[in-house]
Design a protein that fits this description.
Layout: H1 10-39, H2 43-78, H3 98-140, E1 147-149, E2 155-157, E3 160-161
Antiparallel strand pairs: 1-2, 2-3
């Protein structure tokens, strides 16, 4: 190991990564629950859950910022590019703890991918449900609802774009 790294706060980095893993796990749980509420058509519960998802995303962003600060510090101390990712820096980790760091980094990356996939699915479901609801309203009272398209090609109704924000 590089002698410059002997004073690096490895335990702090490990704790930040553990927190990040826990928070992404919490986000995934909320997104799974959100999808259940969308499919069960429970709008009141969904609105409350959306607030929890937003709060969780904010928490994850704070932890990510803290991790990035530690990784930049590690890169500087190791004489690497400051923009290096944690995965790219694994070769400078202490030999005895390297497998543990590799495992937790892999788990975090897997959770991030899963969370992004679930978030995209939920957004698509909300858009589709909005379109279906709009169609039902148009069929129920066709003279009051005119479907048009906005400049981005999204379905709009009476000049208001129909899209989901999660």
């Amino acid at each position: 190991m590089n002698s410059n790294l002997e004073s690096y706060p490895w335990e702090t980095l490990l704790e930040v990564l553990r927190s990040e893993l826990q928070e992404y796990g919490g986000l995934v749980g909320l997104l799974v629950e959100q999808q259940k509420k969308i499919l069960a058509r429970e709008p009141n519960d969904l609105m409350d859950l959306n607030k929890s998802v937003e709060s969780q995303i904010e928490m994850n962003q704070k932890i990510l910022t803290n991790r990035q600060r530690l990784v930049t510090q590690l890169a500087i101390e190791a004489g690497k590019n400051q923009a290096s990712t944690l995965s790219e820096m694994l070769n400078v980790f202490p030999t005895n703890s390297k497998p543990m760091f590799e495992g937790i980094i892999s788990e975090i990356n897997d959770l991030i991918k899963f969370a992004k996939t679930k978030l995209n699915q939920n957004q698509q479901l909300l858009v589709k449900m909005s379109e279906v609801t709009d169609q039902v309203l148009r069929n129920a009272n066709p003279q009051n609802r005119i479907a048009t398209y906005d400049r981005k090609g999204r379905v709009a109704s009476k000049g208001v774009s129909v899209e989901a924000n999660v």
